[in-house]
Structures are given as structure tokens and as C-alpha cells.
Amino acid sequence: MIITLKKNAPERDVKRLMQRFEKQGLQVTAIYGEEFNVFGLVGDTSRLDERTIMANPIVHNVQRVAEPYKLANRMFHPEDSVIDVSGIPVGGKKVVMMAGPCSVEGRKQICRIAKEVKDAGADLLRGGAYKPRTSPYSFQGLGSDGISYLAQARKETGLPVVTELMSAEHLDEFIDQVDLIQIGARNMQNFDLLKAVGRTRKPVLLKRGMSATIKEWIMSAEYIMSEGNPNVIFCERGIRTFETYTRNTLDLSVVPIIKERTHLPIIIDPSHAAGDWKLVESLSLAAIAAGADGLIIEVHDDPENAWSDGQQSLKPERYAQLVNKAKAIAQVVGRSL
Amino acid sequence: MIITLKKNAPERDVKRLMQRFEKQGLQVTAIYGEEFNVFGLVGDTSRLDERTIMANPIVHNVQRVAEPYKLANRMFHPEDSVIDVSGIPVGGKKVVMMAGPCSVEGRKQICRIAKEVKDAGADLLRGGAYKPRTSPYSFQGLGSDGISYLAQARKETGLPVVTELMSAEHLDEFIDQVDLIQIGARNMQNFDLLKAVGRTRKPVLLKRGMSATIKEWIMSAEYIMSEGNPNVIFCERGIRTFETYTRNTLDLSVVPIIKERTHLPIIIDPSHAAGDWKLVESLSLAAIAAGADGLIIEVHDDPENAWSDGQQSLKPERYAQLVNKAKAIAQVVGRSL
Amino acid sequence: MIITLKKNAPERDVKRLMQRFEKQGLQVTAIYGEEFNVFGLVGDTSRLDERTIMANPIVHNVQRVAEPYKLANRMFHPEDSVIDVSGIPVGGKKVVMMAGPCSVEGRKQICRIAKEVKDAGADLLRGGAYKPRTSPYSFQGLGSDGISYLAQARKETGLPVVTELMSAEHLDEFIDQVDLIQIGARNMQNFDLLKAVGRTRKPVLLKRGMSATIKEWIMSAEYIMSEGNPNVIFCERGIRTFETYTRNTLDLSVVPIIKERTHLPIIIDPSHAAGDWKLVESLSLAAIAAGADGLIIEVHDDPENAWSDGQQSLKPERYAQLVNKAKAIAQVVGRSL
Amino acid sequence: MIITLKKNAPERDVKRLMQRFEKQGLQVTAIYGEEFNVFGLVGDTSRLDERTIMANPIVHNVQRVAEPYKLANRMFHPEDSVIDVSGIPVGGKKVVMMAGPCSVEGRKQICRIAKEVKDAGADLLRGGAYKPRTSPYSFQGLGSDGISYLAQARKETGLPVVTELMSAEHLDEFIDQVDLIQIGARNMQNFDLLKAVGRTRKPVLLKRGMSATIKEWIMSAEYIMSEGNPNVIFCERGIRTFETYTRNTLDLSVVPIIKERTHLPIIIDPSHAAGDWKLVESLSLAAIAAGADGLIIEVHDDPENAWSDGQQSLKPERYAQLVNKAKAIAQVVGRSL
């Protein structure tokens, strides 16, 4: 940790501050500059709070040198982690394809679409049972019934299922019936929920919050991992910007960054990012070219009558076309699909 | 609701779409333009999903005319709502002052600071017991003990207390011992938590999410109100932007906007917005001049040793000065304090 | 144009407003709703100013149905425009590769790098002579000398050159010696400069402003085109967001959007977007997979001693590797390179 | 400047880098940490380019300790600068009021409004003659005629005038006839224009760019000052965010920040920030309470027929009310008006 002090700081105050650090077992080295004096602290600084050190009137600036994440950090875990989702490896050579409707609308619907996406090449089935909706007057999902319909679709197709958990209250149901637990963008910093899934061993799909920095996102993975669950998969779904032609702005630079800084897999959700099915194919191919470990895409066989998000859903035949093109791109970047 | 169709839409498809709306009891009026045709739907359109209508390939655009909030909407409730927080009216003539440390650090600390802020002119005591922290390795709050220390401070000073609820699991404890339940920025769209506090009658302080639009924020209030709890107070605490000299960007335009569009009170948190105590006084006076119903400010008697957020905490004597200036500003805008 | 009036608007005021529109030759149709009345205006509304109509106290909202761009709009020009840059077609089947150093640092340097990027597969040479720098104390570019060194490099390699014009004052020099005039992000809404290049027939590379919406960006192209110059190429270089691990956030959704809404080519600048050479290859391949018409990439043979932006520059050998992979991706999406 | 090196950096490379700095006359001090090694450079580092040092593969991070601005920096110029605008001091005890229409629409109009705002208490007259408009089809301002009408209004009322300069081409006209030259938000980083006004001694009103950080904004002032013109006044006019209920988000924290870091005056433009006259009074009072040195407000006597921006213009009688309230707020914060 590097602490910059104001040049006119009274010597006695400087001494007192440095002694405080030394008492905590840190080694302090000073650099005297023309406009500022700089102190480097060597040792375990993880217990120090930058914002409290900044409260000291003689302090000009505080900077951490090391990243605050340990378990997710590639520095301490150089090999890629491959997460096993009920037999499907995520983060290995194969690019993993997750697909399905925004909402589970009924048993028949989800089983029918499950077969369609499986035929088109999907590896996992997605479908919302508990739905985070901006309005209390919008369809809130089929809840527990939706979960059992998903389980039925898994039974019929063999596809593992991924769906969103909104409250720790439903965790048991998810442990029993869901293969990959999604933590949605709005709950990325619902720390109690992160800790709850961290106490299981279930794979977790951690979506990036709408305005989360990459560092905060990794710290949320660290919450899950620090409770004992190492099975975290990142999912980028677009961030909030000023642009209005898209629902969110997909940030593909996260793919090489997450791979450089962590050892965990990362997949891309182009459907929620774009909010428009016409953009989904372009962004999907781009994601794989950038090195993503998978895609999660909304597919519906009757988007015009979908119970939610019809605008961003692909029809199964278009999804099949996308999978074919994605295969060719995957091959170019040394992956299979 | 206004739906714009592409000019080249096949007549049969247009008819079919319009019939679907008419079957739902809506009245349809058409305007034929040069580049687009426009259809206005009159009736209860709240069940329609814009994003599903957009899935129709002949649709160019969909626009809601009425705002999606009803219970919070001033249009249907023209008088100001004044929320009673254990005897303190929020939203009336008096500007309400909430103050206290970022974290409850112990019984003595919170009782001592409670007396100091009361002497300086505070009406409510704030203090975090359950703390949302970016890092799992940071101090997570004293939890249940912190809540009982707050209750002790209330007993000693008579100040009602406000503190953050992070999980519905602790709701009973809050109903018993807390006067104003804070929903933090990171949980503004934790809809299960909103519904849980909506099922009580406890006053709720609803902080704006870091990247929430004003409309989304009001919709979160609507969640609480639609479960039966009308006692919602908005709290602006800065939004996330590209600027790095401040922790967040305080958006004071929300004050007149919330007052025009809703009937609920709004208070301002300059401490979290700025992230720097040196900016707090300026922003506090600005907030009152803009018409805010109150302020929530971090005050600590030893910021350099605070367990969190020392940088943005005022010392009690500075807080007392701020209260005095705030009084004079309040008077100019027809308020008391 | 669709105008929503408040329900309680006095009838006389409504009539007066409608008569004003009718006097301007517009046809007015009314839809009477429960909470609002809606008026559709048919005819040439391009002379109307939305923000002035909004000044009328009875008006609730104003919405344009048609996009404000005409010359750039694909609706009126369905075929792709292919821009000829001194013999290199941009926007055709071939993906165009532009490469070179951030700054022209001398005659030898630019000629040497020109040969290297040509050997690696580049079609055009980039290099800054007039440099927009945040600080007046930073290197401001070699100016006119830099332009003549670029011309020398073109002579030696045959590569057409692209470089930034910062002031209309230097336009003559650019017309003589430059093949593709770049308008930088900071000048995207320097309307006098746009008009100046619009009065020439030189191809223009129009970078997106750091916080420009796609609509504003297209309107800046419209400025150039409305002065008589149809040769505009869009260039996305990342937008400003809250993220700090990258210099800017590259927005690849612009590729399908620009292609849907306009008939003009679009290329991607991954170097300025990422600000880090380690991200450039991933983002380059992603851009081509998304359908971009070209790439502009910073290449320097001694980045550690570059006069500017060394951090984001690729070495020539890495650039050559990137071009090879890009070729394979281009083929998958039906392009050549 | 502080440079963090990767722990595994080969010693020879570290030595070579340090020697390079020492050759440039800098003194190097090392701190050896557990995960990184840190080097502090003491001396004149202003010639170093951070982004080029970052190009070195052994470098982990580079951080400047001192701010990059010198002439604007309060550290080297502790007293407030008061700028004389044709006899009106800006930055002194009196809060300065600038007002007038968005566009100069004719001689009579500007002279009439000039008298109205003067009667209401304005100190300077604003009015756009050269107008930056998003669309080439919108009214572009009366240009040179507009400037002469402003001069006429000044003659009739004695109010100095402020208006926007969009191109150095018109600088002579502005030097002759304008008292305060406005550099608009879109030209905040039009460095050639900044240098041009920097070579005069005319006071300059420097608007903040729509997505400019405060540091970049101060650096643009530094451009003007480094050419010899110390007469710079900052003007905040809102920044671009995701919020859509306002045109821009007014950032009032800039007031105490600019005053802490620079010695220059800062005024606020609530009209462009809000984009809605109904918000202007609240934000104006807030700005003065926050410590602003002045306000620039759009006033029009017939907003519903204004040639531009009617929605955000106050009528003269409302402006007069605002001035009265502003006076009382100014007094509370120790200012006059």
C-alpha cells in the first residue's frame, strides 16, 4: 500500500501515523518528493481501510498495489478452472451453449423449447421461474411450479438447467432441482445471497451488475468463494450507459480481462445486453471470437406472444443458424462447440 | 399506449395485431403518416408488455403515454404525504436531520455519538449494524449486537434510529427495534426484500440504486406500496458516473422531480455521494436550497480511527456548524429546521 | 410527430396549438385517452423544434416517429455505400486493415513502420501528425512535418494514409497529401470542422465522440453529407463509462446497428478503446466476427520508447499474427481480408 | 511519480529502466514488497508519458503524485482569482447573474429581453449567435448579425455580453464586440480553439464537456492559461449519464472541488443541465448555496415560440422571482447578489 502525504504535514503527525502502521507489523519506507512525501507499507495490508486512512488530514492519497481478491486471482492459481455443471465442463476447450425462453410459461412450453434448443445444439437449458421485474404489476414468474417444469424438461431432454435465484429462501429447491444457480445482475451485490450460495457446492452463474466495475464483480465472486464454493462462472450481460439504441452496452473487453486476472470461466449473454434479437447473432459471434467460454441466449418459438422480453428472443431456426456459424468461429480461435 | 408500425407492413398483419388489442378491450385509433402508421390504444394497457409487442416484425416502436406507477403518482394523490417516523414527521415543513457514524462500533461509541449529534441538532440517529461491503474481508458490521446498541442509544437520547436491512431474515428484529428501515442502494431492486418490507407498516428509507433511473426508483417504491405499506421516503445518495474526484455524482435535480411526480418525501445523503467530508457542507446546503425534506449525514468523533468510511465523516463540531447554516437556508425556502 | 397533451388542458389552448400546426401545412389527428390526449402530425415536421413545443404548458410529451437523418439513412438508400480511399474500397467484401504508430515521430520511423505493417498485411497507414492531447505540456505532434513524412512513407510503400485533422486551417495540406481525413472523437461535434470537410470530396473517417449516442454520431455524418460529401466512414473507438480497467468501453453493438440504420461503412479502433495492447487481438477478432468493415490498430516497433500511447501499441510481429487470425474469422463471416 | 513493477521482473530489465530515469535527472528510491516492487521518482516528471512507461512489460502500474495542472493549481496560487468582465468582477463577493435567450432571434428581441433581464437583476446578457446544433437541419444561429444585435443590446442596457465562439475564424469579431467568450461543452477539447482564445486576454467562459472529468476540464483551462490568458471562468452545465428525466445531470460537487483545487471562479448553468424550466429555480438556489460564483440562465419572453430550447427557458417574471430568492440564499453563505 502506498500512502502520499502532504508536503506541509507536521513532522509529529507523520511520525504518529507511521508508528501506527509499524505497530500493526508493517514495514514503512519513505520517499521524500518535492511536492509530496510517499510512504510504502510492506506486509499484510488487507486489514487496512483506505477510506479511513484518507480521513487523516495529512494524507493526500492512498493506493493499493495488490488487487483485493485472492481466491479468484490468477496470480495465486495460474491454471484455468473448469467448472463441472452436471457433467458439462465450463471453461474447457468446448464453448458451452445455454439457451431457452426468458420465462418458463408452462410445462408444455418449456419442454417443447428444450427439445428445440437441444436439436439446435444447446448444452444447457435456461428459463426464468422467479423473475426480477421493474414493475410489481408485471408477470413475476411461475415460481416453484416453474422450477418443477424445468426439472421435467431436463428429464425429457437430458439438458442441465440454469435459472435465477432471487432469495435464499428458495435455496433448497434450487439445490435439489437446478444444475446451475444464476445470481442476477440486480443481486450481484446482495451479499447475503452471495454468502448463501457460497455455503453450497452448486455451480453459480454470477451476472455482472448493471453498473459494476470488473473489480467489484470479481469481489462478488470472492464472496462466494470465501464461503467455500469455488464453482463460479462469470456472465457479462451489458452495462448501463447513456446509449438508448441498445438496452445495455455489451462490454466484450471483459473476456480477456477476466481471463488475465482470474482463473474462472466467463460466458456472454448477448440477449439482455442488446435487448433486440436482430443484434444477437453479431454479438454472439463476436463473443466467441473474443475468447468467451460460452453463450446464454434467449430462444422462444413464439416471441410475439412471449410472456416477457419477446423482442430479444431468437426463434429456434435462427438459433440453429447461429450455432452453426459459432462453430466455425470457435474453430478459428482453437475451441470446439 | 402508442404503437408505430412500419409503412410497408402487410395489411393482414396489421389487422391481426389490431384485433388482438381490441379483443383485450382496448380501443384502437389509427393515424396514417408518410413514413409510418401510428396506432393509439385507449383503455387499461397496464397488462401489455412493450418488449413483447416489439417482437412483432411490423412494429417500429412502442411508447407508453402514462407513467407505470400508480400508488406513488402525484397525479392520483395530489397532496404531499408526510411520513411519521416514531413521532418525527418527514415531508412536512420541518427539514429532518439524520446523523451518526457509518458503522456501529460498540455500545459506548454509538451512545456517545448519539448524544453529540442530538446536541448538534439531529432528529434521528443513523448507524450501520449490517454492512454491505464490497470485500468479504472487510468489517461486516456488528449485526444483531449493533441493533441492540442502537436501541440502547435511542433509549438514552430519545432519538429514533435508522439502519440498513440487508436480508428479510432479520426483519423481525428491525420491526421490534428500528424506527426507519433503510433499503440500501445495492438492494434497491432486490424485489423480494422490497415485498417483505412492503408487508409491514414500518417507514422505509429507499436509497436510489447506483445506476437506477428515477423511474426505476419510483417503481421500487411502488413495489413496497403495492404490498400495503405507504410509508416510503426516498433517499438520493449519488449515482455512478465516469468522474473519479468524487465517489459518486450527487443528482440534486431529483428533488424537484420526485416532488412533481410523486407525493412522497425525499432526503439527501451527501456523505456517500461525495465520499469526502470536505464536500459535505456545500452539498448539504445545496440540498436544502433545492427543497429536500431532510439530510442523512455521517458523523464520527474520531474519523481517523473509524471502522469504515472515515474519509466522509464529519466531526461533531463541524456537523453542528453545518446545522446552523442549514437552518438559515431552510428559512429562505420556507422551511424550518 | 406525436404530441401528448395533458388531459386537463383548456380546450381553447388545445385548439390554438393545433391551428398553429395546421397553418404550417401539417395534418392533425387526435386520439382521446383516459389520462392524456394524443395528437399525430402528418407532413414535413423537420422544421419543428421538439424542445420549443415542450415549452407549451399543456404539452406532456413530444416524440418524433421518423429518424432525423436523411442522407445517411438506409431507408432512402438501401444499398451499401462503398467508399473509395485512393483505390482501396471500404465497405465492400474485403475487410480493410489500417495500422501504424500513434504519433509520427520522424521520417525514418514512419517509413520503417509503414514497411513493417505493409508486410504484415495492412492496407492503409495511420500516424498522428496533429495530436489532441489532454495536457498542453504533452507532445503535440510534428504537425506539418509529420504530414510530409507520412507522404514520404506513402511514396515508399504505396499505402494510402489516414491522419487526424484538428482545425480547418490545415485542410489544404490534408487535401493535397492525405488520403483519408480523420475527425477525432473530441471533434465529433465540432460542427464548423464537419462543414469544412463536408465541402470537400475527400473520404472522412468519423470517430465516435466519447459520450456520443449513435444517433448524434449519425447526425454528425449527416452534417458532412449535407454539405455535399458522401464519403463518410464511421469509426467506433470506445465510449466513456465508469469502468477503470479499460481506457474506454468498446461498443461492438454499433456494427449491426450502423449497418441496419445507415448505408455507410463502419470500422473499429480497438487500440484506443482498450488502451492496452494485451486486449487488442481479442477485440479485433470480435470486431470482424461482428461484421465490421475494417480495423485501425496502433503498431509501433519500440512501444516502450514511443512518444505517445506505447501501452496500447502492438509490435509488428504481433500485428502480423493478428492479421492471420483475422483472415480466418473474416472468411467465416463471408468476407475476405 | 510512483511506478509499481511486477515481482518476477528480471533484475537486468529493472536496472535498465531505472537507469533510463536516472539519466533524465530523476532520483529513484525503491521499496521492495511481497507482491510488487515500488519505485518512487523524484524530480521533474512532467515530461514522462505514463502510457509509454506502461508499455514496458515489467511495469504493473504508474501513478502520478502531483496533479498535472500548474497555472490553474491553487497549490501555487493560494488566493482566489477575480476575473474582470468589462467591469463586472467574477469570483469576488458578489454572485454574478448572466441571463438571456438561448438564441439571438433579432435585434428587437434581444434588446427587449436584455432590458427585461436587467430589470430583473441580471449583470450580463447571454444569447447565442453561432449555435452548435446536433442536426444540420436545425436553426444554426444568426451568426455575425446576431453578434451585432448583441452589441446593440449592450449599448442600450450597459450589460456586458457573453456568447459562444465555435471557430477561431470569428475570433476578431468576438474580440471587438463580445465581453466574455464562451467555449461550449462540445468544444471543451477543441485544443486549437483553446489555444486561439489563450492568445488573447479576453475573459473565457469554459463550459465542462458532456463527459469530461474535472481533471480534463482543468487541463483545458491550463491550455488557455499556458498560452498567456489567465482569465478563465469555469461553467458546469451538467454531464451525460443514463438518466432520461433530465437532459443532463447537474454535478454541484464541482463547486467545492474547483475551489479547493484551483483559484479560478466557477458558475453554474442550470438551464442546459436540467433541460426543463420547472427545475431551474431549485437548481439555481442549490448552486448558490453550494458556493457558486454565478449563474447563467436562459430567459425568454415567449418560450413557446422560441427558435430553440423553449422548454428550458424561464419567463422574465419567473426569473425576477428567482433572483430575489437567490439574494437571500447568497446572504446566508456570506455573498451578495
From TrEMBL, chains A, B, C, D:
Enzyme Commission number(s): 2.5.1.54
Molecular-function GO term, any one: 3-deoxy-7-phosphoheptulonate synthase activity
SUPFAM superfamilies for the chain: Aldolase
Residue stretches making up the DAHP synthetase I/KDSA domain: 91-327
InterPro entries, per database record: Aldolase_TIM, Class-I_DAHP_synthase, DAHP1/KDSA, DAHP_snth_FXD, DAHP_syn_2
Biological process according to GO: aromatic amino acid family biosynthetic process
Every DAHP synthase ferredoxin-like domain range: 1-66
Keyword entries, A-Z: Transferase
Primary enzyme class: transferase
Highest taxon in the source lineage: Bacteria
Record-linked NCBIfam families: DAHP_synth_Bsub (TIGR01361), PRK08673.1 (NF006421), PRK12595.1 (NF009239)
Protein name: 3-deoxy-7-phosphoheptulonate synthase
Species this chain originates from: Catenisphaera adipataccumulans
Lineage: Bacteria, Bacillati, Bacillota, Erysipelotrichia, Erysipelotrichales
